[in-house]
Amino acid sequence: SQTIHQWPATLVQPVGSPLSLECTVEGTSNPNLYWYRQAAGRGLQLLFYSVGIGQISSEVPQNLSASRPQDRQFILSSKKLLLSDSGFYLCAWKSGGTPANYGYTFGSGTRLTVV
Amino acid sequence: DQQVKQNSPSLSVQEGRISILNCDYTNSMFDYFLWYKKYPAEGPTFLISISSIKDKNEDGRFTVFLNKSAKHLSLHIVPSQPGDSAVYFCAARTMDSSYKLIFGSGTRLLVRP
Predict the structure, then answer these.
(1) B 2-31: CB under 8 A from A
(2) How far is CA B12 from CA A20, A77, B51, B73, in A?
(3) What's A36's domain CATH number?
(4) Which is the most buried residue in A28, B44, B74, B112, by most CB within 10 A?
(5) What chain A residue is nearest to B106 in terms of C-alpha separation?
């Protein structure tokens, strides 16, 4: 079966510290992968997406970066966190074999609080 | 520039009545529209979708209507149940291989017993 793993579930980091959030997908190959962020009281903002290994597209200029070192691994990083980076981060995937009308499957999310 | 908008941040309805959640979009380059349901501290889960060439799709208690001329879609839940209480996000999928979903800001639905 196809599953998506995202960790950690919660994270509290000081301003200026680095960040690394990891997302892995099982049971599929060559998925499209996405990172979203939901700030407090806001909608879901697309941050990055990847259609293949090493391919990263950025949607919003910001303090974050993404990498895809393996087919089913997607990493969100920052060298120095800002207070405004706080939020709920979600990884999602879409397989080419998934019916078009099913959209994405989301991970369980990471609650990041920058203090 | 918000391409997908949900102008009602919250909605409260009585159990058994109809819930209507609305969504507007500004870009015609979308091929699917989707609704997701989200509970706090969890990832969104897919609820129902509609192709841009359709005007209605029904799945049990959930029906989505699409008005292309008005660039408007709505989700109807009949009858509403307390377990439907959650945040509902409207999303539009771009017509390219990235399959990007552009989300609205969400509507918090409360179904009162």
Answers:
(1) 6, 31
(2) 39, 39, 28, 19
(3) 2.60.40.10
(4) B44
(5) A43
- What range does the domain containing B79 cover? 4-112
Is B47 near chain A, with CB under 8 Å? no
DSSP string for chain B: --SEE---SEEEEETTS-EEEEEEE--S-EEEEEEEEE-TTS--EEEEEEETT-SEEEETTEEEEEETTTTEEEEEESS--GGG-EEEEEEEEESSTT--EEE---EEEEEE-
For A54-100, the pLDDT digits (tens) are: 999 998 867 899 999 999 999 999 999 999 999 999 999 986 666 66
B49 touches chain A (CB under 8 A): yes
Mean pLDDT for the stretch of residues B89-107: 89
Q: What pLDDT is stored for residue A35 in this prediction?
A: 96
* Cα Rg of chain A, angstroms: 14
Q: Which range of residues forms the domain containing residue A65?
A: 3-114
- Give the percent of chain B with pLDDT over 70: 99
Q: Which of B42, B101, B102 sits opposite A104 (nearest CB)?
A: B101
What length is written for chain B?
113
B102: closest CA of chain A, how far (Å): 7
Q: Return the structure tokens found at A108.
A: 């369980």
